[in-house]
Specification:
The protein has 7 helices and 8 strands; from the N terminus they run H-E-E-H-E-E-H-H-E-E-H-E-H-E-H. By secondary structure, it is an alpha+beta fold.
Length: about 260
């Protein structure tokens, strides 16, 4: 295989998009190193306040996925080795790059990086088409994580009082988990979190990242003890502008399917 690196302008663009990944307390605890023919992701211990570095590693996983998406849209495919050097636990990943023809999905997900933001507004009463939830789950699963909908009574312990809407809505509360709880699993959970957020944004859904791993999240029974919860995301249709009519379910389904490039929802 003919591995190489993009030109400096392409790398700067991709790394700028990777820096838009969500991170615990907005600390951006990652550090990227450019080698002669590879890229390397390191955890910056100075920005990792957690004693076990759980949240920072999840954040680095999100940045890793953002970078892979950005590079794919710019014509480069990444071959990733996670935790490549056991003697250096802060060395989270190495990436070697190959020329690549971008797909419509990769271009759409890369465009979603700049559009995505955490939205704490109330969501509408419009339900999410099941196929759209299936797409979000599928992309997280492909990255080694699982996604479980939190429904009552499981959702109540993980919703902060400020996040409880005064009126019922149809936003979904999703818990991202992994079957193991080692450093690699946490890195993959961060990658899956990024996939969930970007897929939802591409479909046209608003997202609110409620928490990375917290004690409250560990105490929930959402995953039935079969996996370790790592993050919580709330997704749904955002309210339209003042004076605009609220979209119908058919409007939402049509919009989501056009944006996902994934066929009928």
């Amino acid at each position: 295989m003919d591995y190489g690196l993009p030109d400096s302008s392409t790398l700067e663009t991709a790394l700028a998009l990777a820096a838009r990944a969500p991170s615990v307390a907005d600390t951006q605890p990652w550090r990227w190193q450019i080698g002669s023919r590879s890229l390397h992701l390191y955890l910056d211990p100075a920005r990792a306040a957690d004693p076990d570095q759980r949240g920072p590693v999840l954040s680095c996983g999100a940045s890793l996925h953002h970078l892979r998406v950005a590079l794919a849209a710019l014509g480069w495919s990444a071959v990733v080795r996670r935790l490549p050097n056991p003697a250096q636990p802060h060395h989270l990943a190495s990436m070697r790059l190959l020329r690549h023809r971008s797909t419509p999905v990769e271009l759409a997900l890369s465009a979603a990086i700049s559009r995505r933001h955490t939205d704490h507004r109330h969501f509408t009463s419009l339900p999410i088409p099941p196929g759209c939830l299936g797409l979000v789950t599928e992309r997280a699963t492909a990255l080694g994580a699982l996604v479980r909908r939190a429904t009552d009574p499981a959702r109540s312990p993980v919703l902060d009082p400020s996040d409880r809407a005064p009126d019922p809505d149809f936003a979904e509360l999703l818990v991202i988990g992994t079957t193991a709880d080692d450093r690699t699993s946490r890195l993959r959970a961060g990658e899956a979190l990024s996939a969930v957020l970007l897929t939802a944004t591409n479909i046209g859904l608003a997202t609110a990242l409620l928490a990375l791993e917290t004690p409250e999240l560990r105490r929930t029974g959402v995953l039935d003890g079969a996996a370790h919860p790592q993050a919580i995301v709330r997704i749904g249709w955002a309210p339209t502008g003042i004076g605009s009519p609220e979209p119908t379910l058919e409007d939402a389904r049509s919009w989501a399917c056009r944006r996902s490039h994934a066929g009928p929802c």
